[in-house]
Each structure stands twice: as structure tokens, then as C-alpha cells.
């Protein structure tokens, strides 16, 4: 189903949001948009909404069209995405889980090869958690001559090491159980990345509530939903395998010619398995086995 802008989606698309989980994909271009949609449908999302600029010429595959909504939307103005998320959450039933990400980004969670996203979120909700933190794992092509846009699904690499976390502060005070995580090619090539874009932590899965807002820094207005776990034990976390930074560094003229290769001694081939990320400590199974 097609929608002529966000207002149209918020008016006529409420049936899409009535039952979840729903994946919201903000498309900045057409790179790997088809594979992004297919990946999230395979995970078990009931439907996927693609919010893309009119200039992005893309049409869904016939077999996915019935579960797909396409919304004309410009993600580039400042704060356009968090503002859109706030408005979408406002009309979404509280029982519906929402995931959000960009094209060429792929959600992974513990045991996702054998369990659906719905099963995972049902367990997370039973633990009285209303949101889930995900860590963005920068993916990149090892050969920029063969893949000048930095993107290759068949031979993707990521940084196995080089990550660090710091406590999050607000109004000069540390926030309980909130961390800001850094690393990946955003850290290695930080001179080309704006400070506000360097964080890897993201509240990627959300159960809406009346009045809940997504802030410009992509944290939620209810602080408990920004925490990595409850006070008593570890909870599930997820990962978002993302080519977005590699794409941006290759598209920007300054960084494109300054960076000859993304590989370093900490690079490892990405095998698209949750086990690899669990073994690397990049997501947490919590009490779910």
C-alpha cells in the first residue's frame, strides 16, 4: 500500500500499526533496500513500512508487497526521523512493538536463526521491559575497488575489537543503567564523523505509550526505556548490522579520497549469525535461552 506522505500514513495507515511487530525502514537511498525489507520480513515482522524520498526509485518485489507499506518521506532534514517516530508512536497501540532502522541495516537478536522476533519480544515483555537497546555494528566492504560504495553482503567485515562505553549524563548527573557506546569505523575515522553521529547505542525496539517521545539524540523521553537492563538482572539486547556509515564515508568527497581501506588488524569477516555477535559480546541473551 502506498501513502503520499507521513500525514497520509498516520491517517490511513493505522491498520498497519494495529498489530505488530512492525518494522519502520527509513530509506536514505536505494542501496540494499530490497534485501533490508526481505531480511526483516524473514525475522517475523508482521509488516514493514518503508519511508523513502520520492526521488528514490524503488518498487517492492511482488511476493513482499502484501506485507509492505511505502510512505513518501524525506529523512534528511534535521530531526526529521525522531520527529516522525514520535508521531508514529502517538498513533500506535501500546501492544504493538515497533522496530526502526535505515536501509542497508539488518536487525539481529539472540537465536534469531531459529526464533522469530515476535517470540523474542513476547519474552522481553514478560520481563516488564518496554524497549530494547541495540548496538549498531558497522559493516564494510574489505575491497573498495571492487565495492566502491563500501557495501557487500557476501563479504562484509566488521570490527571485532575497539569498542568502549561511558556512562550517560543528563543535566550533569549520571543516569542509572544508561551507557553510550562507541567504536567501529565511526571511531577509527572519527575525524570524518560528527560527534552526535558517533554513538553505537540505539533504542531500536519500542513499545509505544501515550506521550512517549523520541528525542533528537535518539533517546526516549522516559528514561527507563533507555536503560540496558532492569535493576535486578541482565535483559536481552540486540544488534543492528549496518552499512550506513561505510556508505556515508564513501559518498562524502572528503572522506572518500582520504580513506583507502576500511580493513585493520581488528577486522573480521561477518558471517551473519547471532552466535558470532554473542561470542564477541555485542549483544546479550539475558535470561532467554
Sheet having the most strands = 11 strands, mixed
Percent of residues in helical segments?
10-25%
Radius of gyration of CA atoms, rounded to a whole number: 18 Å
If helices are DSSP runs of H or I spanning 4 or more residues, what is the number of helices?
9
Strand content: 15-25%
Overall pLDDT: 95
How does the helix and strand content classify structurally?
A: alpha/beta
Give the low-pLDDT segments. Answer: none
- Gap between N and C termini: 37 Å
- Number of distinct beta strands: 13
Shape: globular
Succession of helices and strands: EHHEHEEHEEHEEEEHEEHHEH
Your description of this structure?
- By secondary structure, the chain is α/β, with parallel strands linked by helices.
- It has nine helices and 13 strands.
- The protein has helices at 6-12, 14-17, 33-43, 80-91, 117-126, 184-188, 244-251, 253-258, 274-279; strands at 2-3, 22-26, 47-52, 68-72, 98-102, 105-108, 131-140, 157-159, 164-170, 173-182, 201-206, 238-242, 267-269.
- The longest helix is centred in the first third of the chain and has 12 residues, at 80-91.
- The chain starts with a strand and ends in a 10-residue tail after the last helix.
